[in-house]
Amino acid sequence: MSLGTLYVTQQTRSWVPKGIVKQFNLDVKLSDKDETYHNSFPLNKIPAFIGPKGFKLTEVIAISLYLINIADPKSKLLGKNAAEYAQILKWSSLANTELLPTEAKVFKPLTGQSPYNKKQIDEGNAYLDTVNGIFEERLANFTYLVGERLTVADLLAATFYVRGFEFLYGKEWRAKFPSITRWFTTVLDSDYLKSIVPEVKFRDAPIEYQPPKKEKKAKAPAEPAAKKEAAPKKAAPAAEEEPEPAAAPKPKHPLEALGKPKAPLDEWKRVYSNEETREVAIPWFWKNQYDPEEWSLWKVDYKYNDELTLTFMSNNLVGGFFNRLSASTKYMFGCLVVYGENNNNGITGAFLVRGQDHVPAFDVAPDWESYEFTKLDGSKEETKEFVDNMFAWDKPVEVNGEKREIADGKVFK
Fold this sequence. Notes:
This protein is α+β, with helices and mostly antiparallel strands. The chain contains 14 helices and 11 strands. The protein has 3 domains: 4-71, Glutaredoxin (3-Layer(aba) Sandwich), CATH 3.40.30.10; 77-188, Glutathione S-transferase Yfyf (Class Pi), Chain A, domain 2 (Up-down Bundle); 223-412, Translation elongation factor EF1B, gamma chain, conserved domain (Alpha-Beta Plaits, 2-Layer Sandwich), CATH 3.30.70.1010.
């Protein structure tokens, strides 16, 4: 008999319950959000668990402890006595309520996921220093948070540190908090997490806020363009605007070494901006622009959809990402759309990139690793259908077999 269903995603709070199920080989079904989930958990929080006879459980600490107890009530992950068990609850709660939310308070404005507020960021960083100081002092004297062996407190706290290491904790921070850094890498390499948590690459410096560029007011569009007011691309392509003179010569973009393509992007951007998308622009793209020897197609997905909230904020996140990609304007074109509704949305899209590797085009943006890149085969009909839909925005997005309406989006051109 199945022990129940665990609802998880790529959200950080999903990782430990998933690791427990896998490591203990529990007969628990892992599921994305479905109709049963939405009917059972009105707060729309992940993870969530439904067991036999309608037993329901939310909150990651409670779910993790429950799963370990049904797998092995004597597991060392739960400590060896009441005092250690209390310490497990202490460190798990501290990381869950003080560490992770404060990290989000700092990195979300820096990455465009929430409005920029310098006072909020400064206060958050100051509080993080205090919280991290508590963890550092403990880990300077012990291998793990509750002594000399791994417990569920380490698993939970380490996963809550992931976003901090991804966005905030550079070389100077790691030199200041060496014990946390040592412990973090050790715990993530444990059997419970190493196949669950995506690879974390240490930063040289914290991510920096880049304010949106002030766009020049566009001239009134001609009459044919006015008919397409609802379309996602009527303004003249940004690539045609003359950049302001630089104070010093800029380093060459790595993709410049590929030379000029047979079909430069400017003409495609003009066609896309000024012609009917389905009837004219998309056929023109496949006939005149896409050459698999010079260009590659990529599906781009935001990794942390379950951390998204309001759709307009998700769209602002895309806008910030595009601003930070401006150095690659000459080498790619693409669309990212926000699908779904408030507190249940995601980001996906398609890009045309110069050359066969996406990294040189995207790594100009400090937050590019928050996205997953999948190379597409332009000769396949399913690829053409996906790219067409991402360029046109006139059909729902299919996610895990479910049709999701497009709420918003942006064009990188």
